[in-house]
UniProtKB/TrEMBL annotation:
Single biological process term from Gene Ontology: phosphorelay signal transduction system
Major localisation: membrane
An annotated GO cellular component: plasma membrane
SMART domains membership: HATPase_c (SM00387)
EC number: 2.7.13.3
Name of this chain's protein: histidine kinase
Organism name: Streptacidiphilus fuscans
Bias-annotated ranges (Low complexity): 364-381
Entry annotated with the keyword Magnesium: no
Biased amino acid composition, Basic and acidic residues: 433-442
Length: 442
């Protein structure tokens, strides 16, 4: 009996095991399906979130693009408005400067007429002082024209008669205040093209004015020149003033070398106007200007490389002089040294000095008292040296470094204007010294 029930028991046990396995498989399958459904739902939710995030990013990017376009447009509008305001302001300044320049030119013409008819030495000296002040006023008006943008372009015109480098430097002396402290030494016989002689004289006037303003009143500013192998002429303007730090020199030389945009150069803070004017003139003429500490360690030396393209061929200049195309300045009679005139000694320095126009006084010994000097930096980062002569402080509306430009006119008249200005300068010296010479002979 037990033998017969054994297979049945095994079959029953197998059936139970099969049922259990089937139930397990069903449970596993149900849980697997449930897990899959949950995973799919999670993935679907994640995809929905990702799609919504992408949509948000797309909307944000589109909004950002719109904001960028609007900002660029606003910036362009602001730039155009600033350019228009600068242009309008520059036109106003140029108009005022041109009107002042016309009046100063008329004043100079009237003074020349009075000087020609005046015989009294005292009144004649006063007229020369007024002439010198008017010349400096003209230079300031020309600076305004250049900074306003009216004189930034190279003026076309017929070539003028060449001018000696010595005459260009003398004309520069007539435009500065402390001209009696400038020594011209070792100048080679160089001819400058007439159409650039006037602008070049303004560059030298700026450097000379800067050197005399920021050096002790007992020290002279020395000017030398020499030829370079490249055909250029190097002109050195050395002072023995307060000097500049290495950082200031790097900043100034970077500004002089990187001429940049004339609109950016012509506009800025009210300080360092002379640096911007020199930079504009250097770009116009193609000059290379660099400032260095003097070899003696005190003072600053400005080196100006005049390109060969600005120099006249001596043979051509001789031909123009022979054919009447080059105006000759009459030498006049020599002026005694006690008259403080410009004299030249063979093998020695040339001392350029004329009656002093400062404070309405004649030429005399320079003050031996110098106030302490300080060095400041402008808001634009450019150095501003403060002169220490007679305790005077530099004023923002009267910066010493300021070369000048010419109002728009025929470039052929530049050399004639230079000679006219220089002729009056020298004639004034001779006529002012003539009564003293006659008194000495008496």
């Amino acid at each position: 009996m037990s033998t017969l029930n054994a297979p049945a028991a095994l079959a029953a046990a197998a059936a139970v095991v099969a049922v259990i396995l089937l139930l397990v498989l069903l449970v596993v399958q149900m849980r697997t399906r449930r897990a899959r459904r949950r995973g799919q739902a999670a993935r679907n939710a994640a995809m929905d979130k990702m799609r919504r995030a992408y949509d948000d990013l797309d909307r944000a990017y589109a909004q950002l693009q719109q904001n960028n376009v609007r900002l660029v447009q606003e910036l362009d509008d602001a730039s155009q408005e600033l350019r228009r305001s600068r242009t309008e302001g520059g036109e106003v300044l140029a108009n005022l400067a041109l009107r002042s320049l016309v009046l100063v030119e008329r004043q100079l013409g009237s003074l020349e007429g009075l000087e020609a008819r005046e015989s009294d030495s005292v009144r004649l000296e006063q007229l020369y002082q007024l002439d010198h002040l008017a010349t400096r006023m003209r230079r300031n008006s020309e600076n305004m024209l250049l900074l306003a943008g009216s004189g930034d372009q190279q003026r076309p015109g017929r070539p003028g008669a060449p001018a000696q480098l010595l005459d260009v430097l003398r004309a520069a002396l007539s435009e500065i205040e402390r001209f009696e402290r400038v020594h011209l030494t070792a100048l080679p016989p160089v001819l400058v093209r007439g159409e650039v002689a006037d602008d070049l004289s303004h560059v030298f006037a700026e450097l000379l004015d800067n050197g005399t303003a920021f050096s002790p009143p007992t020290e002279a500013v020395t000017v030398t020149a020499w030829h370079l192998d490249s055909g250029e002429v190097m002109v050195s303007v050395a002072d023995r003033g307060i000097g500049m730090t290495d950082t200031m020199l790097r900043q100034v030389n970077h500004t002089l070398a990187d001429h940049g945009d004339s609109e950016e150069i012509g506009h800025g803070s009210g300080r360092s106007l002379g640096l911007r004017v020199v930079t504009l003139l250097a770009r116009r003429l193609g000059l290379r200007i660099q400032l260095r500490t003097s070899a003696s360690g005190d003072g600053t030396t400005a080196l100006v490389a005049v390109p060969a393209a600005l120099l006249a061929d001596p043979a051509e200049a001789h031909h123009q002089a022979a054919t009447g195309g080059m105006e000759q300045i009459p030498p006049g009679r020599p002026v005694p040294e006690d008259a403080q005139a410009a004299t030249y000694r063979q093998g020695g320095p040339m001392l350029a000095a004329v009656p002093n126009a400062r404070h309405g006084q004649g030429a005399g010994p320079a003050s031996t008292t110098a106030a302490p000097s300080t060095t400041t930096t402008s808001a634009s980062g450019l150095p501003k040296r403060v002169p220490g002569e007679s305790g005077q402080l530099a004023q923002a509306n009267d910066p010493s470094p300021q070369p000048a430009t010419r109002p728009p006119r025929d470039a052929g008249s530049a050399a004639e204007e230079l000679r006219r200005r220089l002729g009056g300068f020298q004639n004034g010296l001779r006529e002012a010294a003539a009564p003293r010479e006659e008194d000495n002979k008496a």
